[in-house]
Amino acid sequence: MLGNDIVDLDLAKTQSNWRRKNYLNKIFTADEQLLITSAKNPDDMVWLLWSMKESAYKIYNRKTGIRNFAPKSLNCVIHSDTGQIHGTVNVDDNTYFTKSDIYTTYLHTIASVESVKLKDISMAIYKSPNHLFDYKSTNPGCVSHHGQYLALVY
Predict the structure, then answer these.
(1) Residue 117, SS3?
(2) Which residue from 33, 109, 104, 39 is spatially nearest to 72, judged by alpha carbons?
(3) Which neighbouring-strand residues pair with 106?
(4) 70 contacts 77 by C-beta, under 8 angstroms
(5) Most buried among 7, 34, 58, 61, using CB within 10 Å?
(6) Is 18 helix (H, G, I), strand (E, B) or coil?
(7) b or e along 45-66 (b: 16 or more beta carbons within 10 Å of the residue's beta carbon)?
(8) Calpha distance 41→34 (Å, rounded)
């Protein structure tokens, strides 16, 4: 099973005020909040952790059938942040492995139930208007879209 999340960073800056009172407390654990407040770029860290949670949740939801996105129950750990960012997300007794890339205008995370499978995941990322096609016919393993971006994984 695959998970996938993309964040249009330009849109996130205008649509979300994560600095407002109690926002972080509702979504992130104490350890995750520490990562955010100590990061060189707190904005990127917020959206990195968010995309890790989203990509893992997509697998968890398909696996369990539970449709209850409670972001604070998904616990992120970053293991490496040199080049690509590798991490894990734990929810209940499940661990999901993630790999993320941060670019100037978007951030993308993929997730898998096995860490070795991350290297085998194929990705296609499109920026509007270049994603106005019937992408479902390509049978992606997971779809994510935000703002101008569409991310498909296989």
Answers:
(1) helix
(2) 33
(3) 8
(4) no
(5) 7
(6) coil
(7) bbbbbbbbbbbbbbbbeeeeee
(8) 13
Tell me the C-alpha distance between 143 and 124, whole Å: 10
115-139 pLDDT tens trace: 999 999 999 999 998 776 788 899 9
CB 124 within 8 A of CB 152: yes
Task: Indicate whether 82 pLDDT > 80.
Answer: no
CA 32 to chain centre: 14
User: What is the set of domains in the chain, with CATH numbers?
Assistant: 2-118 (3.90.470.20)
Token pair of 133 as six digits: 């096609």
* Token reading at 77: 């750990």
Distance between CA atoms of residues 131 and 126, nearest Å: 5
Percent of the chain with pLDDT over 90: 84
pLDDT at 57: 97
| Cα gap 3→21, rounded to integer Å | 30
Question: In the chain, where does DSSP find H-type helix?
Answer: 9-15, 23-27, 30-38, 42-64
What is the Cα–Cα distance from 55 to 7, expressed in whole angstroms? 11
Q: Please, which residues bridge with residue 98 across strands?
A: 87, 111
